[in-house]
Design a protein that fits this description.
2 copies of one chain form a homodimer. With 449 residues, chain A is an alpha+beta fold. Chain A has 15 helices and 21 strands. In chain A, strand 16 and strand 17 form a beta hairpin. The N terminus of chain A is likely disordered. Chains A and B meet through strand 15 of A and strand 15 of B. Strand 15 of chain A pairs antiparallel with strand 15 of chain B.
Chain lengths: 449, 449
Amino acid sequence: MAQLQNGHSKKQLDIAIVGGGLVGSLEALYMAKRGHRVHIFEYREDIRKTPLARGRSINLALSVRGRTALRDVGLEEQMIQNHGIPMRARMIHRLDGSTYAIPYDARTNQCIYSVGRNYLNGLLLQESEKYENVERHFNHKLVDANLRKGSMKFETPGKENIDVTADLIIGADGAFSAVRKCMMKQPLFDYSQKYIEHGYLELCIPADESGGFQMPPNYLHIWPRGNFMMIALPNQDCSWTVTLFMPFTNFKTIDSEEKLLGFFEKYFPDSIPLIGKEKLIEDFFGGSPSPLVAVKCRPYHVEDRALIIGDAAHAVVPFYGQGMNAGFEDCTLLDKLFQKHHDSLAEILEEFSLTRWEDTHAISDLAMYNYVEMRDLVTRPSYRLRKAMDDFLFWLAPNFWVPLYNSVTFSTMPYSQCVKNREWQDKMLTYFIISAMSSALLGYFVMSR
Amino acid sequence: MAQLQNGHSKKQLDIAIVGGGLVGSLEALYMAKRGHRVHIFEYREDIRKTPLARGRSINLALSVRGRTALRDVGLEEQMIQNHGIPMRARMIHRLDGSTYAIPYDARTNQCIYSVGRNYLNGLLLQESEKYENVERHFNHKLVDANLRKGSMKFETPGKENIDVTADLIIGADGAFSAVRKCMMKQPLFDYSQKYIEHGYLELCIPADESGGFQMPPNYLHIWPRGNFMMIALPNQDCSWTVTLFMPFTNFKTIDSEEKLLGFFEKYFPDSIPLIGKEKLIEDFFGGSPSPLVAVKCRPYHVEDRALIIGDAAHAVVPFYGQGMNAGFEDCTLLDKLFQKHHDSLAEILEEFSLTRWEDTHAISDLAMYNYVEMRDLVTRPSYRLRKAMDDFLFWLAPNFWVPLYNSVTFSTMPYSQCVKNREWQDKMLTYFIISAMSSALLGYFVMSR
């Protein structure tokens, strides 16, 4: 029996975390800090020992929700100071190669950070080595589980299966979660997976000859082209990870080097010298576009024995930069529930399921919508006018009028509340505009008499 | 090589139908008529040899889409004449036990038919015995399949697994389809399953002492009670299958015989003497409420090798009485595509996927909405006024104004078109009403001068 600081005498729980990615390894730290025995089971090799896996986004945008979680486990400073590259604005690339910036937070100059997935994952795993009550098991693939009983079967490198039981199974095993697949056998489990008709393909802008950045680094660069777009996030080594998002049908039409170069000359001419023609051809035809899926489900738990978090519970499309942040926030909220319910699993898991889904559904819908904003709306005068009005009102009354993007990215307001706020703001603006026009008209009639 | 009547020389295909229920056995007849070799694999015993499975709805509403399919395979007459019980109206039971009827089709007196699931399933299987090119394999459970290769593994009664390959696998294995589970491993497969918060429980009103009906038989009886309802459909033996639909949370609160009788005395007093107190208690506590799920997915096929139809592709909640009818319509449409594309599977399956999902999504949404109509709206004056207006306009201009229920139930208009029609009718009615009120107001002002 472990005696924790709040004075409650509690059982030390055996917690099995399936998935040693970003969310799983963060959750391990939270649980280790609470004094529980934690086992991480990861089906891949130890990421600290392996080169980059191709086809996975190698950098990510860290914002306030993610930072809050890292602060809780004592890693925020290290992450931000030593590694994160601040991005203060979107840098829009026009067809002619000219650019302009749209700040994320014109008022207080807050920023998001481009961080390396592997670096952050390694850092979290490394931190877990400091806890005696955490064990890591790599190359362990979940092949079956009885979630009600807390029992699992893993395939190990020697191909021998091992059986494990735990007081709590936490599935943090990503968008194609094996734990969730077991959960789907439960009655009354709502589930949806939706693929968008667009795929993505990663390219690279290398560092320049002197090892510096080829583009201004403190921006998220965007080439919005209506039905498709390209973006670039900076890396520590002064390279850029460039991602092309486009309908699969468009990818298919680009089936020769000539067509590829023609396409880039037409739509992304300024990027060709940065990427390099040869490298562009090599990377484009060396990979194939990956699909993007949004997963929604509920409930997230099975009785007092199993829970899914992160992408396993709510994979979102990447266009709000909130996938990792939402997963990290799961861990933060879960920790608060452990505190509130004194580690009583039945209550913790039920409250998490009941209270979290509305927010994750909200960010999923926002992310879906933001793709349209990023690739198309961002270039329109109506968008820029609205953004200017939002920024002005935010400057005028920062506690009263927080624009949607800012509440999602730079606050920990529940996502569903961010959406409700925006709906209210839309109504207010419509009302303002109608009032202003009515007053103007009235004034005109009065003055013209 | 089989020489079919249209003169095209074609390969006789090996078709494996997984599921020998209503849709699977109907599809077998369609395919047998086209000259293909058909194997039905059903995981249950032969339904013709087994007593009723508890917990499955034992009667169903057959309407025009289902009848059209039965006509195609030569079974409509037999089904309607010898077995179906016509239901010409909804019979609404008020709290005080008084009733009133709402005809389904006041204009031409069309009706829906209450048919026994087992009888119809047995009839379809029996008919398949007439074809030498159909084989039935009962107690065969699909455990795995490679849909791209057309290979399947079945568990048989002796627990030995057998391997089967086919040119085409048709999954007609219901809402929890094993074929669909294999399909989910395909990339870009959209899928959703949604459970409603209501469950259902089946009760029974037996025949009276002289073997006759205890209620007027040519009606679908409804006890609408706002958030829940009870319905009854007539059976051949003059009994009624009674189904109580109610939130699971309400079911839970009825945990004693006193509470059950109190509940029925309050909400369904006229049904107690019909069901019988003892039988009510026995059936209510003998079963547990079953869940209701709606499944949507797309695409329905894998290359030129596999397809899902019926509930496997689009399980709907039962409130429009269209589940079986929509599944039968799948078979009819599929047969037309076989004709159109001369049995060329790649084209048939792709067109089915591309064209069918919009209609199945439409009927799924309609069925979800109809639950609210049946248990609540049907009792409101606004509903009865709209119904009267619809009926009048339908009588006045039967080709121009077909009410929603009639187009869904008594026509083969695509479901999505039925919905679009209704939206157009809503707009027209709003326009009529505003015009009429404006004219009346104008008239009043002119006359009062």
